[in-house]
Amino acid sequence: MESKKSASTTYTPRIVDTELALYLRTLRVIAIEGAKAVGKTTTALQHARTVYLLDDPDQLAVARADQSRLLHGTRPILIDEWQRLPSVWDLARRQADDPRNPPGSLVLAGSAAPPPDASLHSGAGRIVSMRMRPMSLFERGVAAPTVSLGVLLRGSRPMLTGDTTVRLETYVDEILASGFPDIRRLPDQPRRAQLDGYLTRIVDRDFIEQGHRIRRPTTLRGWLAAYAAASSQTSAFEVIRDAATPGQRDKPKRDTTLKYRDVLQRLWILEPVEPWTTSSSHLRRLGASPKHQLVDPALAARLLNVDKSTLLSGKDAGPPVPRRGTLLGALFESLATLDVRVYGQAADADVSHLRTSRGDHEIDLIVQPRGSPGVLAVEVKLSSSVSDDDVRHLVWLRDRIGDDLIDALVVTTGPAAYRRTDGIGVVPLALLGP
Predict the structure, then answer these.
(1) Does pTM surpass 0.85?
(2) Please, which residues have CB within 8 angstroms of residue 287's CB and are 6 or more apart in sequence?
């Protein structure tokens, strides 16, 4: 049953490698979480000495017969796809509680959280979860970043420099290619087929494995497409449901669509950007709606069946969900959100968004170091240049919170990084790094 580690000679280092190495030196049990195909197993293999693969039917059968065998071998021990045997969580929790176990004893990797009715004890304070997402532009090797998000969060407001030849068409290519390591390397047609198969598996198999049988798969697929059309928007779930079923009287009930959302979040497919909350007396009327995002904008593009020419034409596509700006603008923001989340996690910071309850002010991304009142405010613009109107919400926030604004910048598709005379940074997405 035991598999020995076989290190890949073609492994592309990931930003979370540093985080995982730190945890292995200091914590007994780590759980790597994230959607299928983001590279959890491949990354964990670089650190593990013994490996158990529970998506292998034979290894799963042996583990069910004698779960203790999962603790045999040289540590760190990796148990991959652990959610296929949910009781492994309690096994890991007991390992974390045992002071005789050294740091780096056990790594769990899973592409789904167990169903909410699974009889599991909390691992809070014992098992530390580490999120893994699709590859950022830095990890894909698109360009060499010259602006560090981590440095910006220190509050020194450094000079911003750097030039890039990356232009709009390259960003569109990266939106469509995905950040899934093995999928993005494929030629266009096989890659589209793989992404379509990925989505089909979610509907046909993953929902069932989560204990939720779908009576009408086409309805779920339509809801997913409507959610994709709402990328980077704060549309109400009733709006998404209605867009998924235009002209139909027999619409899914609210409870049904909420189950869609809950299961897809447990599968790490939906990753909404939660609204920013603050105790500041200057910001009392903030919106409470999340901003919709799929784990990778390439999935949204496949759900909406759009290609490069469609996106560059500025045409709309998919279910009729109201949005500000173009679909390409929404997906470019999705790509920027993925990058900022990956870099923010490396800097131990949370990412949210700001929108006032009346909608008169909104900022795409708020990056807040944990334990700090300060924030980095980020606007995302599908433009190569930045006007005074593009920064008005950033200026408004600076006027409201003063020194609590660590820094502010606009992420663009432009050629150079610099600071405006008002102090607000302008950074091409390709030049932003961890």
Answers:
(1) yes
(2) 234, 275, 355, 356, 357, 359
